[in-house]
Amino acid sequence: MGRELKPEKELWKTAVTLQATNFIMKTVNTNQTGKKKELLAGLLPLLIFFTGSFIFFALLADYIGFFQEKQSLFVFSGDYLFNTIRQPGSPLVYLGRILTTFCYYPVAGGFLISLIICLLILMISKIITLLTGRSSILLPLIAGTVFLILQGNYQYLVYNNLGILLQVILFYVSVKYLKGFLPVILFPFWYLLTGGFAWIFALIYSVYLIRKSLKQEWPKIVILFAFTLLFIWCLKEFFLFYPFLSLAVFPLSPEDTGSQKVLFAVAAGFVILLPVLAEIRIRLPLILRRFEPRKMIVLSVAAVLLAGITAVLRYNRVYDEYFKAEKLFSLGKYRELISYTDRHPSTNRLTIYLNNIALCETGNLNERLFHYTQSPDGLSLFLKWEMYGEVLRRGAYFYYTTGMINEAERWAFENMVMKGIAPEDLRILIKSEIINGNYAVASKYVSMLRRTLAYRKEAKEYALMLADTTLIDRHSELGTKRKEKIGHDFFSITDNPYINIEMAFAADTFNRKLYDYRMAWQMLTENYEGIASGLESLERVGYNKIPVHIQEAALVSRMSGLSLSGLGGLTIDPQTEARFTQFLQTFSSYGNNLKTAQPALKKKFGNTFWYYAFYH
Amino acid sequence: MRSIPSYIFALSAALIMLYSCTGDPGKKAGVTDETPSLTPDYSGTVIPYNIAPMNFRIENEGSAFFARFQSANGKAIGVPSRNGNIAIPARQWKKLLEENKGGELKIALFARGPEGWTEFRTITNTIAADPIDPYITYRLLYPGYESWKEIFIKQRNLESFRERSIIENSLVEENCLNCHSYNNTGNTESFMVHMRGSLGGTYFYNNGNFLKVNLKPEELKNGAVYPRWHPSGKYVAYSSNKIVQQFHSALNKKVEVSDLESSLVLYDIDKNEIMELDLPEKEKYMDTYPEWSPDGNYLYFCRAPAVGEVFHYDSVRYDLYRVPFDQETRLTGPVELIYKASVINKSVSFPRVSPEGYNIVITLHNYGVFPIWHKEADLVSIDLRTMTATNMSLNSDFTDSYHSWSSNGRWLAFSSKRIDGLTARFFISYVDSDGNSSKPFIMPQKDPEFYERFLKSFNVPEFSTFEVNVNPGKILKSARNEALQAKWAGN
Description:
Chain A is mainly alpha-helical. Helices cover 73% and strands 0% of the residues of chain A. The model of chain A is unreliable at 1-9 (pLDDT under 50).
């Protein structure tokens, strides 16, 4: 019997097993679906926040990535690595520069910057879950918003948020996986990697240990700080010799955080106090908590609002317009730059400075100079030497355009010495050395440019020219610049660019770009004698038609009793004469009152030399 | 699934293949009369037996390369390479050179092409029996104009590739560092260096400590600049200069440094006194670049007529003079003209007397006092016994300038811009007892491509026989102290 019953028992067992399996499978499926929903509920606001941040950094405020990418040239080479990693914290700077080099492409830059911020949000959320056992997204989103605000300052370098992210990750790993004294032992090495940012980890971990049990954990806190301070002291005394404070805080600096001291302190403080703040429960109304989809919607709306409002508040139109102009300039798109400045009129001196160079390069400086707000001190024409600000980085362009190649090279070189290698400096140096025929030096710079992400193609073009130097004279830009290079030597006067123009033009009297700038300066300074005497060079530099502004200035010169005999065979356009008459009549119709006549004159003649002369 | 032995087999096969790619060409190689192209060029030169491995890159075409270093004595060194970079094993190199002092070093180079290995014409170098001073100290900075950020004073062991910082300006508020000078030109570890800026002063290093001194009492019109330490160690002669730096707008030489005023001063270290050297009619001249004879009884210097407020920078030319110097009384005697460069429209700078005292090497250039940016600057040796000047064969078409003698007087290190026209590199040349120089070689680096990438200049080379026992942090403590004010002393 027993033997006969056995198959039945087996069948029964099988049936029970199958049923149990089905039940388990169903339960698992239900749990998985629930987890997926939960995961989605947690991630959706984050994804929305990411999208908002990405749109901001990649499209709206791409100038942030542009500025940072132009600050320093990342070179994929052992030398660059060796030169960058020289003290604790410099590996973080190196990593930040790798990411920043991708900012050449706004989409990639926006993606990476947003990814760092969203990873911060995610890690803060995970830490809260780890410490309290419950999920949290609203508090991390608020924290993320602070990091978004910080990053919205174009001078806040990428490595700052990256540095904080790394501390948050280490804290999470330490609490979850590293037991005993391991985090304390590892900390000095962590300090070597992330420098001053490591103190954020030290503090957050200390707060965590205090909350856990000060009585039991105090040795870890004491050893963590004492051991690290001793470690830094040893570095200072025996290995690196930098001042203690510099070693302890690098790479934290007000300059590289965009001078946002308070906001940065708030963000760092938030992270440090996370073990305490994690206990704060932001309770949504019951009705929302009961219905998961509503909660998800509210959090998503919160993410949209936080990212959106921040984006709107942090967007700076002036910076955006300036850096867009600089980007077009950097790409050599002079006509597009002029067109952009027409569409986005600016009073920014640097924008006008770049635009004036674009006008000169396209032969329109004295046709359109007064269409833009010029600086009467000449600083929209050329920049004055300044060692520490942003001027040095851009001053070379004017000299490059006017054929004063040595001086252009000097400005770029000095900037490289003072601030490290930046892409635009290196390009000027390469072009200058090629124009000057110093091919060995140019090759050295080109080999560096070849090891970059965004400038490899350009470097190849230079390398081709260096391999076959006959290509240089045929090159649209370098060939022209070589012809326009001044031949007469004099000592450049750093503090007075105009004197350099005068000295250069005194010998290179056929250089049209020098002439244009010379006349532009005479007009800006209303030097009518200079304007009248400059007319005689018009034909020599190749003009067969007088540029409009020079015509306008010539008419005023004539009115002042100066002779226009220098015009030679060139004549002033009757239309300009007629407009000048209209200008004077309009002025007269307002009783020769400058103030009351201004609106009318601005409307009709706002882009003329006459208006500038009246109202600058 | 693959077993572990199969991986070992695959790895072994790969290693064998790799070796076969770069291995010794043996006797199968064909022979060509072509001279191999090396970077740096280490061919046909005289090398010291204690120099670090002279690694180089073979520039000729090839899919694999091989170098064999051979001398009369000892075992040959074979170095295979896949990319042409020849990295010589240091121990074998040292042994080979030491065993063949005064002999020849033959370098056979091979390249593998589509038709197999080819051997180039053998390079022959001479291994001098005279050692080079094992250390050289120099300043490392961008070959720039007027700004600076990173300046290092480093000491390099020429017998290896070890290089260490003595001073880094990043540790001293990025002040400018310049003009280091050794006591007794490298036979002691005492040296001095100027620092300009917030921590400015002249720092004397002696017995493990720096002493910060202000060498400019009120009575001294211009600061102390170019130094030269008296062989007795008791004095340092300086030029006291008013310098102007200008920038050429079109010439390929970028910077012009000129003196508006200059005179010679003497600092008595023990007495902490600084005094003007009372040279006859000194107000009519600009005197600069002091240099002592090895016995300390003569002071050499460069002299040009004083310039007025307006002058043509390219018409100022310096001649070489000397005065006898009484080491007890600190008094000088009558001025003696040694070399009148101005008659051939040339100008003299950086006089350096050989340790034997027989000849003096100067930098000769077209005009002015600062030849660093003068492409035409060359080294000229003047035999002090016959007073004949000879343009040295070590010169190039580019700037060959600041130079330094080794303590045995057989090696001359100098800065040269011959590689690219911009960055200064150190070249070393053997100078025989008759003053003849050999083809110079560039200071060896571990990476043969180093000089092609490195943007900074090496300048002011000074040989030394000691490794200076100072770390870069040491100066910081002294820098924060008040400077010891040097007292003004009459003659």
